[in-house]
Amino acid sequence: MTKLQEIVSKLNEEFDIKTLGKDPSFSRFIPSVFDPLLYD
User: Fold this and answer.
1) What are the start-end ranges of the H helices in 1-40?
2) How far apart are the first and last CA of the chain?
3) pTM here?
4) Which of 4, 19, 33, 40 makes a 20 to 30 Å CA pair with 13?
């Protein structure tokens, strides 16, 4: 089984997280997904 850290590392490499940084709009996306579900 692949370790979580290995998966995270490969995804960070693939999406070039260190160069591009985090997606600022993603933090607005997550709440909008949970709101219709009435998640608290």
Assistant:
1) 4-15, 17-20, 26-34
2) 33
3) 0.44
4) 33
Rounded CA-CA distance 14/27 in Å is 20
Distance CA 20, CA 7 (A): 19
The CA-atom distances, in angstroms, between 10 and each of 3, 23, 26, 28, 39 are 11, 18, 20, 25, 31
Chunk the chain into consecutive blocks of 10 residues (it has 40) and report each block's average pLDDT, rounded to whole numbers: 90 84 69 60
Query: Would you kindly state where each structural domain of the chain is located, as residue ranges?
Result: 4-37
- CA 20-21-25 angle, to 5 degrees, is 105
